[in-house]
């Protein structure tokens, strides 16, 4: 099927742009010997896992289901971190995960008898209490009152027996300068423990595949850590793997007027791109501009009953008409993994675009997908 023939709404994964991202990530691995994992919380389209596994070292998970998906469909290394683990899940986690990161020493000790007798490498997540977020407080693990990671005041040197690694994750869509400054804070508070470690995990939030990302600074930091502490270094970006490698195609169903022209779309911010409301942010839209930048300005909204289900205001060179198709960009990440069926909204199909003339419909959803979530 051609790109222009796809039914809306649908997510489209751009295979060629995905490969470009993967090549950049692999180049960091090749230059440093570090290992880069896919953080599935941002992108879990397992139809491309066989492709991604040719470039990356494995996956990381935030719970049992993600761990199972990575283990079954990606292969290679499977890592997991969660603020707390359920007892009923832990036996299966031990069987499929090679690395387990605990959020607290109480969780470490709760499961010590289990992990000490299993073939796993165990780590502790650290909280350096060093915030670099600006405007994304919801994604700041170092904010006051954060539940994520062990602070210096709560660190238990006496419980490190068997602990082989340390993990920190403080970034969100950031460049390597924030990683460098963060590591200085981590090293100042916890560095003396790294000499006895086997690995350090720098977490995610690294926008390595962004055009302005300073890869050299990242490479230099990795080599510094490897040389000083003789450890294996892991990174687990999610967004960077599929950054700008996907689209959400939608159709204009109606146009209403209330102070300005409002487009009613068959795609929804609340259902199909929740980060638009949660973060919030204004997703890029192909061939559009900011409000009043171009001749025709519209507010883009949805056909749900939620008054605030608004994607944003955009302008266009020409008048938009009912039946026109719009293409939101950078829609591979935090879309498919977070979507929902509020209001009975259909889930968008998932499409893999090998090229514009060869689009493969991977998955279509129906009423049953809505019904079977309920009882």
TrEMBL record:
SUPFAM superfamilies named in the record: Alanine racemase C-terminal domain-like, PLP-binding barrel
GO molecular function: lyase activity
Superkingdom: Bacteria
Domain Orn/DAP/Arg decarboxylase 2 C-terminal: 11-331
Keywords of the record: Decarboxylase, Lyase, Pyridoxal phosphate, Spermidine biosynthesis
EC assignment: 4.1.1.96
Keyword Metal-binding: no
Stored Gene3D superfamilies: Alanine racemase (3.20.20.10), Lyase, Ornithine Decarboxylase, Chain A, domain 1 (2.40.37.10)
Obligatory cofactor(s): pyridoxal 5'-phosphate
PANTHER family named in the record: CARBOXYNORSPERMIDINE_CARBOXYSPERMIDINE DECARBOXYLASE, DIAMINOPIMELATE DECARBOXYLASE
Protein name: Carboxynorspermidine decarboxylase
